[in-house]
Specification:
alpha+beta
């Protein structure tokens, strides 16, 4: 699974295969914690991230989501 970003010790990964299951999501790893986060909403769909790491990740996702929705 390719790493698409690293910041504040958070590693963000994503599959780029059309066969990847829905809903579209990213995988975030922070220390010993890992979660799958839905791209559309920023909500955790599986796993756990501490509150501060989740907030930073959602903040990182926001401009990318806005661009994606604008292009769609």
């Amino acid at each position: 699974m390719p790493t698409i970003s690293r910041f504040y010790e958070i590693v963000v990964r994503m599959y780029f295969l059309p066969s990847e299951h829905n809903p579209p999501h990213i995988h975030a790893i922070y220390g010993e914690n890992a979660a799958s986060i839905e791209i559309e909403t920023g909500a955790i769909i599986d796993g756990y991230l501490p509150g501060k790491a989740l907030s930073l990740l959602q903040e990182w996702m926001e401009p990318k989501l806005e661009r994606r929705l604008y292009v769609s």
